[in-house]
Prior knowledge:
With 157 residues, this protein is mostly helical. It has six helices and no strands. The protein starts with 37 loop residues before the first helix and ends in an 8-residue tail after the last helix.
Amino acid sequence: MAAPKKILKSGNSPAARPKGATKARTAKMPRSKSKPSLGSRMIDAIRKVVEVMDSGEPLEKHFRVHTLKTATLNIPPTHRYTAAEIKAVREKLEASQALLAKFLGVSTHTVSLWEQGKQNAPPIACRYLDDLRDFPELWTSRLTVIDALTPSSGRRR
């Protein structure tokens, strides 16, 4: 009696598929042979940079190098205003809490909290208060514009 034949079943052969199943079709994407993939180009570029750096030659000899200009600001550290100092700046400008609040872009309630010491003014507001204290013409030049735009009622808003 002859020994039964062993059938090797591979993943997509008819013998490996369950009964009634059809062969799965996979679409092959055409590969462009003229242009390597982005990943391949990136890896090649990184390898070239490493080679040049290992050789000790200047990068400018092999690559286009852009130099970024930097600037240094001469700004002193932000002064943290106390409640009394905020009120003093406001009074120096002869402004109400509402007008100073509008000028700084905050609510009147916020200025009130600063002046009562219940809340600290944020650094950006402190920096602006520095400018108002040191250069009051910033205030007066804008105040004139505000007065010109508000209906005249005999008092400052």
